[in-house]
Amino acid sequence: MSDLIAVDEARRRVLAEVELLPAGPVALADALERVLAEDMTSAIDVPPFDSSAMDGFAVRAADPGVLRILGESRAGHPAGVHVEPGTAVRISTGAVVPPGAQAVVTLERTEPAEGAVRAEAVALGENVRRAGEDVTAGDVVLPAGTVLGPAELGVAASVGRSRAQCTARPRVALVMTGDELAEPGAELAPGRIYSSNARVLAGLVQRAGAELVTTEQAGDTAQATRDALDRALASADVVCASGGVSVGPHDHVKAALGDLSVTERFWGVRLRPGKPTWFGVRDRVLAFGLPGNPVSALVTFLLFVRPALAALQGADPAARRGRGRLTEAVSRNPRRDEALRVTLDARDDGWHVTPTGPQGSHMLTSVVGADALAMVTAGDGHAEAGHLLDLELL
Q: What is the pLDDT of residues 138-167, one digit of tens each?
């Protein structure tokens, strides 16, 4: 690892290997957090007709006084009459504005009369939602690459779509290495620790819109590591191994991936925590060797794996980045950029960031309550309060 590369260069090499996954139709009910593979256009105007924005009476504009009520237009039930001067139609919010009506006078501006209504004058178009005011037929309502959240699914439904053309979700396999790992709930033998990385990485996979296909724990032998990675490579689009990527006698991940014909693209990043990160490819499968320290695994996943999962689906790999100002001075590392775990405070001049506390790579509690990673570039001295940092939003 004598030739460490910069974080941005590592990310560039990862994204250079990404090939967009195939796409297919997905029912809207199953499309939350999926990524659109093509522009979604509307075949209709939205609203599809002039409708009322308020409960009241559909009237001719500037036609005050006592108006004869011709009928009622309810949502889903048009009145079927024509409004003439001196007449009105009772109307509900969202109902069709009948022909001849030019405005809607609200209930608060009317008084009942025998078979009629006394109404104040209203301006032309007042309280009327025009057909196509939100969407015009032929409009692109959601561009390709959009991540479908609740609002986006609502827009798709509003233009009559029951399905969306979405990129396949990347399949991810996790391999945890280490004889010291014990399952939570089991008795903790001497020298062992509970396995947390599997839970952390599984949650990050899910939040990235990917599908976790398998999680396996491998012992600290060359054969066990090779066998677990062989199975992972056969089952997934992305493989993440945690631990075993450094230079110790029990670090077998790098050699095992080489034996399995995975071509190395980099090993070692000028990053703290996360220096021994490894990345390679076999055919279209992306393989990541992440450090075993819990925070290091989380940081390197967010910086390198999450952008790859976004790009595989056609989403913007930089969508969760921003900038923010330090609220206090922090020490720089002289050789490596540092990913601080920070909280965010939105102010008039943008985000202000504050470290969560001690930042050791073994201290997973430093991520609890964190909103982002703040990247402090390598150098001497301190990054002072007010310094602007790049952010990776959590």
A: 999 999 999 999 999 999 999 999 999 999
DSSP 54: S
What's the CA gap between 110 and 65, in Å, rounded?
Answer: 9
Closest CA to 323 of 389, 371, 378: 389
Q: In angstroms, rounded to a whole number, what is the distance separating the alpha carbons of residues 294 and 326?
A: 25
Which 3-state string (H, E, C) describes 87-118? EEEEECCCCECCCCCCEEEEHHHEEEECCEEE
Q: Domain 321-393 falls in which CATH fold?
A: Beta-clip (2.40.340)
Fold of 7-21+168-312: Molybdenum Cofactor Biosythetic Enzyme; Chain A (3.40.980)
DSSP 8-class letter at 96: B
Residue 308 one-letter amino acid: A
Nearest to 227 by CA among 191, 275, 183, 177: 177
Nearest to 252 by CA among 244, 260, 242, 263: 244
pTM confidence score = 0.90
Tokens of 249: 């006698």
Fold of 26-45+135-167: Molybdopterin biosynthesis moea protein, domain 2 (3.90.105)
Report how far residue 117's alpha carbon sits from residue 22's, in angstroms, rounded to the nearest whole number. 61
Find out whether 127 and 53 touch, Cβ atoms under 8 Å.
yes
| 30 contact partners, CB below 8 Å, separation of at least 6 | none
Element (H, E) at 202: helix 197-207
pLDDT tens, position by position, 319-355: 999 999 999 999 999 999 999 999 999 999 999 999 9
Q: Which residues 6+ apart lie within 8 Å of 376 measured at CB? A: 330, 332, 333, 337, 338, 339, 340, 383, 389
